[in-house]
Amino acid sequence: MEILKPEQYGEYETFVSSHPNGEFTQSINWQKVKNNWEFEAVVSRDSQGKIVGSMGVLIQRIPLIGTSFLYAPRGPVCDLHDRDVLSDLKAGADQLARKHNAHMLKIDPNVPMGDTRFIEIAKGLGFRQNYGPEGFEGIQARFNYRLYLNGRTADELFANLTQKTRYNCRVAMKKGVEIRVVGKEYLGEFVRIMQATGERDGFNTRPKAYFERMLDALGEHVRMYMGFYQDQPICGAITTNYAGKACYVYGASDNVYRNVMPNYLIQWEMIQWAVETGCTVYDFQGVSGNLDENAHMYGLYRFKRGFNGTLDELAGEFDYLYQPLKTRMVSHAIALNGKLGGLKRRLKRG
Q: Were both Cys, which of 102, 211, 212, 217 would link to 97 (CB 3.0–4.6 Å)?
Protein backbone atom coordinates (compact mmCIF):
# COMPACT_ATOMS: atom_id res chain seq x y z
CA MET A 1 0.00 0.00 0.00
CA GLU A 2 1.21 3.48 -0.81
CA ILE A 3 -0.23 6.96 -0.47
CA LEU A 4 1.08 8.85 -3.47
CA LYS A 5 2.79 12.20 -3.59
CA PRO A 6 1.58 14.73 -6.17
CA GLU A 7 4.63 14.11 -8.36
CA GLN A 8 3.43 10.48 -8.72
CA TYR A 9 -0.07 11.38 -9.89
CA GLY A 10 0.83 10.87 -13.55
CA GLU A 11 1.40 7.16 -12.90
CA TYR A 12 -1.93 7.00 -11.06
CA GLU A 13 -3.77 8.66 -13.95
CA THR A 14 -2.25 6.31 -16.51
CA PHE A 15 -3.50 3.34 -14.49
CA VAL A 16 -7.03 4.64 -13.89
CA SER A 17 -7.61 5.88 -17.44
CA SER A 18 -6.64 2.53 -18.95
CA HIS A 19 -8.31 0.17 -16.46
CA PRO A 20 -11.63 -1.51 -17.36
CA ASN A 21 -13.03 -0.30 -14.03
CA GLY A 22 -11.68 3.24 -14.41
CA GLU A 23 -14.18 6.06 -13.89
CA PHE A 24 -13.89 9.79 -14.61
CA THR A 25 -14.69 10.52 -10.96
CA GLN A 26 -11.57 8.54 -10.03
CA SER A 27 -9.41 10.58 -12.40
CA ILE A 28 -6.77 12.77 -10.79
CA ASN A 29 -8.47 15.69 -12.55
CA TRP A 30 -11.78 15.25 -10.71
CA GLN A 31 -10.27 16.90 -7.64
CA LYS A 32 -10.00 20.11 -9.69
CA VAL A 33 -13.77 20.03 -10.16
CA LYS A 34 -14.45 19.27 -6.49
CA ASN A 35 -12.28 22.16 -5.36
CA ASN A 36 -13.95 22.41 -1.94
CA TRP A 37 -12.60 18.95 -1.08
CA GLU A 38 -9.07 17.77 -0.38
CA PHE A 39 -7.69 14.78 -2.28
CA GLU A 40 -5.41 11.81 -1.64
CA ALA A 41 -4.52 8.87 -3.90
CA VAL A 42 -3.94 5.36 -2.55
CA VAL A 43 -2.44 2.56 -4.65
CA SER A 44 -1.65 -1.12 -4.27
CA ARG A 45 1.38 -2.54 -6.11
CA ASP A 46 2.41 -6.04 -7.12
CA SER A 47 5.81 -7.58 -6.38
CA GLN A 48 7.32 -5.80 -9.40
CA GLY A 49 6.09 -2.41 -8.20
CA LYS A 50 3.33 -2.13 -10.81
CA ILE A 51 0.07 -0.52 -9.73
CA VAL A 52 -2.70 -3.13 -9.55
CA GLY A 53 -5.29 -1.11 -7.66
CA SER A 54 -6.05 2.51 -6.86
CA MET A 55 -8.47 4.65 -4.93
CA GLY A 56 -8.86 8.39 -5.29
CA VAL A 57 -10.23 9.72 -2.01
CA LEU A 58 -12.00 13.05 -1.61
CA ILE A 59 -11.85 14.52 1.89
CA GLN A 60 -14.52 16.86 3.24
CA ARG A 61 -13.71 18.52 6.55
CA ILE A 62 -16.58 19.11 8.99
CA PRO A 63 -15.26 21.74 11.41
CA LEU A 64 -18.33 21.96 13.67
CA ILE A 65 -17.91 18.33 14.69
CA GLY A 66 -14.14 18.17 14.27
CA THR A 67 -14.04 15.29 11.83
CA SER A 68 -13.71 14.47 8.12
CA PHE A 69 -15.66 12.46 5.59
CA LEU A 70 -13.71 10.25 3.15
CA TYR A 71 -15.34 9.41 -0.18
CA ALA A 72 -14.03 7.45 -3.17
CA PRO A 73 -16.58 8.23 -5.92
CA ARG A 74 -17.08 5.11 -8.05
CA GLY A 75 -13.91 3.68 -6.52
CA PRO A 76 -11.82 1.75 -5.97
CA VAL A 77 -10.32 0.87 -9.37
CA CYS A 78 -9.00 -2.70 -9.44
CA ASP A 79 -10.10 -6.28 -9.89
CA LEU A 80 -13.04 -5.99 -7.53
CA HIS A 81 -12.84 -9.69 -6.70
CA ASP A 82 -9.21 -9.50 -5.54
CA ARG A 83 -9.49 -9.50 -1.76
CA ASP A 84 -5.78 -8.85 -1.21
CA VAL A 85 -5.77 -5.71 -3.34
CA LEU A 86 -9.01 -4.45 -1.80
CA SER A 87 -7.61 -5.08 1.68
CA ASP A 88 -4.43 -3.20 0.77
CA LEU A 89 -6.41 -0.20 -0.48
CA LYS A 90 -8.56 -0.29 2.65
CA ALA A 91 -5.35 -0.15 4.74
CA GLY A 92 -4.40 3.01 2.86
CA ALA A 93 -7.79 4.51 3.63
CA ASP A 94 -7.30 3.61 7.29
CA GLN A 95 -4.07 5.61 7.26
CA LEU A 96 -5.86 8.57 5.70
CA ALA A 97 -8.60 8.28 8.32
CA ARG A 98 -6.02 8.65 11.08
CA LYS A 99 -4.34 11.55 9.30
CA HIS A 100 -7.59 13.46 8.71
CA ASN A 101 -9.54 12.27 11.79
CA ALA A 102 -12.25 10.79 9.57
CA HIS A 103 -15.50 9.45 10.96
CA MET A 104 -16.23 7.29 7.90
CA LEU A 105 -15.16 6.12 4.45
CA LYS A 106 -17.73 5.70 1.68
CA ILE A 107 -17.12 3.78 -1.56
CA ASP A 108 -19.64 3.10 -4.33
CA PRO A 109 -17.92 1.07 -7.05
CA ASN A 110 -19.65 0.21 -10.29
CA VAL A 111 -20.69 -3.30 -9.27
CA PRO A 112 -24.09 -4.90 -9.90
CA MET A 113 -26.39 -5.91 -7.08
CA GLY A 114 -25.89 -9.52 -8.11
CA ASP A 115 -22.12 -9.42 -7.52
CA THR A 116 -22.19 -11.47 -4.35
CA ARG A 117 -18.42 -12.02 -4.44
CA PHE A 118 -17.60 -8.31 -4.08
CA ILE A 119 -20.33 -7.78 -1.51
CA GLU A 120 -18.95 -10.67 0.54
CA ILE A 121 -15.40 -9.28 0.39
CA ALA A 122 -16.52 -5.75 1.30
CA LYS A 123 -18.52 -6.95 4.29
CA GLY A 124 -15.58 -9.12 5.34
CA LEU A 125 -13.43 -5.98 5.41
CA GLY A 126 -15.95 -4.32 7.72
CA PHE A 127 -18.04 -2.30 5.26
CA ARG A 128 -21.79 -1.87 5.64
CA GLN A 129 -23.87 -2.02 2.45
CA ASN A 130 -26.45 0.75 2.06
CA TYR A 131 -29.08 1.19 -0.63
CA GLY A 132 -32.65 2.38 -1.06
CA PRO A 133 -35.49 1.26 -3.34
CA GLU A 134 -35.69 4.38 -5.51
CA GLY A 135 -31.98 4.54 -6.26
CA PHE A 136 -31.46 8.25 -5.57
CA GLU A 137 -31.07 7.94 -1.80
CA GLY A 138 -27.25 7.96 -1.96
CA ILE A 139 -24.66 10.24 -3.48
CA GLN A 140 -24.64 8.47 -6.85
CA ALA A 141 -27.63 6.98 -8.64
CA ARG A 142 -28.03 3.25 -8.03
CA PHE A 143 -30.09 2.43 -11.12
CA ASN A 144 -28.30 3.38 -14.33
CA TYR A 145 -29.64 3.03 -17.86
CA ARG A 146 -26.83 1.95 -20.19
CA LEU A 147 -26.39 1.22 -23.86
CA TYR A 148 -23.73 -1.45 -24.31
CA LEU A 149 -22.20 -0.81 -27.72
CA ASN A 150 -20.64 -4.26 -28.21
CA GLY A 151 -18.65 -3.13 -31.24
CA ARG A 152 -21.76 -2.19 -33.21
CA THR A 153 -21.69 0.53 -35.84
CA ALA A 154 -23.73 3.72 -35.61
CA ASP A 155 -26.07 2.40 -38.32
CA GLU A 156 -26.64 -0.81 -36.38
CA LEU A 157 -27.32 1.11 -33.17
CA PHE A 158 -29.73 3.48 -34.91
CA ALA A 159 -31.63 0.54 -36.37
CA ASN A 160 -31.84 -0.90 -32.85
CA LEU A 161 -33.57 2.15 -31.36
CA THR A 162 -37.26 1.79 -30.66
CA GLN A 163 -39.46 2.88 -33.52
CA LYS A 164 -40.68 5.97 -31.66
CA THR A 165 -37.15 7.11 -30.76
CA ARG A 166 -35.94 6.67 -34.36
CA TYR A 167 -38.96 8.66 -35.51
CA ASN A 168 -38.27 11.47 -33.04
CA CYS A 169 -34.60 11.65 -34.09
CA ARG A 170 -35.74 11.98 -37.70
CA VAL A 171 -38.29 14.64 -36.74
CA ALA A 172 -35.49 16.72 -35.22
CA MET A 173 -33.35 16.27 -38.34
CA LYS A 174 -36.23 17.15 -40.66
CA LYS A 175 -37.12 20.25 -38.62
CA GLY A 176 -33.55 21.48 -38.94
CA VAL A 177 -32.33 20.96 -35.37
CA GLU A 178 -28.54 21.24 -35.35
CA ILE A 179 -26.37 19.64 -32.65
CA ARG A 180 -22.95 21.22 -32.09
CA VAL A 181 -19.99 20.62 -29.82
CA VAL A 182 -19.48 24.03 -28.21
CA GLY A 183 -16.95 25.73 -25.99
CA LYS A 184 -17.16 27.66 -22.74
CA GLU A 185 -18.53 30.70 -24.54
CA TYR A 186 -21.90 28.92 -24.44
CA LEU A 187 -21.83 28.19 -20.71
CA GLY A 188 -24.13 31.10 -19.97
CA GLU A 189 -26.77 29.68 -22.30
CA PHE A 190 -26.26 26.18 -20.90
CA VAL A 191 -26.77 27.40 -17.32
CA ARG A 192 -29.85 29.38 -18.35
CA ILE A 193 -31.41 26.30 -19.93
CA MET A 194 -30.34 24.16 -16.98
CA GLN A 195 -32.08 26.55 -14.57
CA ALA A 196 -35.25 26.37 -16.66
CA THR A 197 -35.05 22.58 -16.52
CA GLY A 198 -34.52 22.59 -12.76
CA GLU A 199 -37.50 24.87 -12.18
CA ARG A 200 -39.68 22.72 -14.41
CA ASP A 201 -38.63 19.37 -12.97
CA GLY A 202 -37.99 20.39 -9.36
CA PHE A 203 -34.25 20.01 -8.74
CA ASN A 204 -31.40 22.31 -7.74
CA THR A 205 -28.81 23.22 -10.36
CA ARG A 206 -25.06 23.83 -10.34
CA PRO A 207 -23.52 27.29 -10.75
CA LYS A 208 -21.71 28.29 -13.93
CA ALA A 209 -18.31 28.08 -12.20
CA TYR A 210 -18.82 24.37 -11.51
CA PHE A 211 -19.40 23.52 -15.16
CA GLU A 212 -16.47 25.72 -16.17
CA ARG A 213 -14.18 23.80 -13.81
CA MET A 214 -15.48 20.52 -15.20
CA LEU A 215 -14.73 21.51 -18.79
CA ASP A 216 -11.29 22.84 -17.85
CA ALA A 217 -10.30 19.90 -15.65
CA LEU A 218 -11.42 17.02 -17.86
CA GLY A 219 -10.16 18.54 -21.10
CA GLU A 220 -10.37 16.10 -24.02
CA HIS A 221 -12.39 13.70 -21.86
CA VAL A 222 -15.48 15.94 -21.76
CA ARG A 223 -17.67 17.73 -24.26
CA MET A 224 -20.49 20.22 -24.02
CA TYR A 225 -23.15 19.76 -26.68
CA MET A 226 -25.90 22.19 -27.56
CA GLY A 227 -28.94 21.82 -29.76
CA PHE A 228 -29.97 24.78 -31.93
CA TYR A 229 -33.27 25.47 -33.66
CA GLN A 230 -33.42 28.46 -35.97
CA ASP A 231 -29.98 29.30 -34.54
CA GLN A 232 -31.39 29.51 -31.01
CA PRO A 233 -29.94 27.26 -28.25
CA ILE A 234 -32.76 25.06 -26.94
CA CYS A 235 -31.01 22.14 -25.22
CA GLY A 236 -27.60 21.17 -23.90
CA ALA A 237 -25.62 18.34 -22.36
CA ILE A 238 -22.24 17.65 -20.79
CA THR A 239 -20.85 14.19 -21.46
CA THR A 240 -17.59 12.55 -20.42
CA ASN A 241 -15.54 10.01 -22.36
CA TYR A 242 -13.03 8.25 -20.13
CA ALA A 243 -11.58 4.75 -19.71
CA GLY A 244 -13.72 3.37 -22.51
CA LYS A 245 -17.01 4.71 -21.13
CA ALA A 246 -19.11 7.66 -22.26
CA CYS A 247 -21.31 9.14 -19.52
CA TYR A 248 -24.17 11.59 -19.98
CA VAL A 249 -23.60 13.62 -16.82
CA TYR A 250 -25.74 16.76 -17.18
CA GLY A 251 -28.59 17.58 -19.51
CA ALA A 252 -30.96 20.50 -19.96
CA SER A 253 -33.82 21.47 -22.27
CA ASP A 254 -35.60 24.78 -22.67
CA ASN A 255 -39.33 25.29 -22.35
CA VAL A 256 -39.68 26.28 -26.01
CA TYR A 257 -39.58 24.23 -29.22
CA ARG A 258 -39.83 20.95 -27.37
CA ASN A 259 -41.98 19.69 -30.24
CA VAL A 260 -38.94 19.58 -32.56
CA MET A 261 -37.51 16.76 -30.41
CA PRO A 262 -34.00 18.13 -29.80
CA ASN A 263 -33.37 15.91 -26.77
CA TYR A 264 -33.51 12.76 -28.88
CA LEU A 265 -31.09 14.05 -31.48
CA ILE A 266 -28.56 15.34 -28.95
CA GLN A 267 -28.44 11.91 -27.33
CA TRP A 268 -27.93 10.26 -30.69
CA GLU A 269 -25.02 12.61 -31.48
CA MET A 270 -23.36 11.81 -28.15
CA ILE A 271 -23.82 8.08 -28.71
CA GLN A 272 -22.01 8.48 -32.04
CA TRP A 273 -19.07 10.11 -30.21
CA ALA A 274 -18.91 7.04 -27.99
CA VAL A 275 -18.87 4.78 -31.05
CA GLU A 276 -16.21 6.84 -32.84
CA THR A 277 -13.88 6.72 -29.83
CA GLY A 278 -14.22 2.97 -29.27
CA CYS A 279 -16.20 3.10 -26.03
CA THR A 280 -17.75 -0.10 -24.74
CA VAL A 281 -20.78 1.60 -23.21
CA TYR A 282 -22.82 4.80 -23.31
CA ASP A 283 -24.16 5.47 -19.83
CA PHE A 284 -27.36 7.53 -19.65
CA GLN A 285 -26.81 7.59 -15.87
CA GLY A 286 -29.51 7.55 -13.25
CA VAL A 287 -33.15 6.58 -13.40
CA SER A 288 -35.55 5.68 -10.61
CA GLY A 289 -35.88 2.10 -9.48
CA ASN A 290 -39.64 2.64 -9.28
CA LEU A 291 -40.89 1.55 -12.72
CA ASP A 292 -44.56 2.21 -11.99
CA GLU A 293 -45.84 4.18 -15.00
CA ASN A 294 -47.55 6.62 -12.61
CA ALA A 295 -44.35 7.32 -10.66
CA HIS A 296 -42.96 10.85 -10.68
CA MET A 297 -39.73 9.99 -12.52
CA TYR A 298 -41.06 7.32 -14.88
CA GLY A 299 -40.89 9.72 -17.83
CA LEU A 300 -37.10 9.91 -17.52
CA TYR A 301 -36.86 6.12 -17.69
CA ARG A 302 -39.27 5.98 -20.64
CA PHE A 303 -37.15 8.49 -22.57
CA LYS A 304 -33.89 6.63 -21.96
CA ARG A 305 -35.49 3.23 -22.61
CA GLY A 306 -36.22 4.36 -26.16
CA PHE A 307 -32.52 3.92 -26.98
CA ASN A 308 -32.94 0.20 -26.27
CA GLY A 309 -30.28 -0.27 -23.63
CA THR A 310 -30.16 -2.09 -20.30
CA LEU A 311 -31.29 -1.08 -16.82
CA ASP A 312 -28.45 -1.90 -14.41
CA GLU A 313 -29.09 -2.13 -10.68
CA LEU A 314 -25.92 -1.39 -8.74
CA ALA A 315 -25.03 -2.67 -5.29
CA GLY A 316 -25.15 0.78 -3.70
CA GLU A 317 -22.82 2.36 -1.16
CA PHE A 318 -20.43 0.66 1.23
CA ASP A 319 -19.56 2.53 4.41
CA TYR A 320 -16.77 1.88 6.87
CA LEU A 321 -17.32 3.63 10.18
CA TYR A 322 -14.21 4.78 12.02
CA GLN A 323 -16.12 6.82 14.59
CA PRO A 324 -19.73 5.59 14.80
CA LEU A 325 -20.79 8.24 17.31
CA LYS A 326 -19.53 11.11 15.18
CA THR A 327 -21.06 9.48 12.11
CA ARG A 328 -24.44 9.60 13.84
CA MET A 329 -23.83 13.20 14.88
CA VAL A 330 -23.13 14.21 11.28
CA SER A 331 -26.20 12.33 10.02
CA HIS A 332 -28.45 13.97 12.60
CA ALA A 333 -27.02 17.41 11.88
CA ILE A 334 -27.72 17.02 8.17
CA ALA A 335 -31.15 15.46 8.52
CA LEU A 336 -32.57 17.41 11.47
CA ASN A 337 -30.75 20.64 12.11
CA GLY A 338 -29.09 21.73 8.90
CA LYS A 339 -26.26 23.13 11.03
CA LEU A 340 -23.64 22.07 8.52
CA GLY A 341 -25.00 24.40 5.88
CA GLY A 342 -24.39 23.15 2.37
CA LEU A 343 -22.71 19.87 3.31
CA LYS A 344 -25.50 17.68 2.03
CA ARG A 345 -25.53 19.54 -1.29
CA ARG A 346 -21.75 19.26 -1.56
CA LEU A 347 -21.96 15.53 -0.99
CA LYS A 348 -24.41 15.11 -3.82
CA ARG A 349 -22.77 13.69 -6.98
CA GLY A 350 -19.40 13.31 -5.31
A: 102
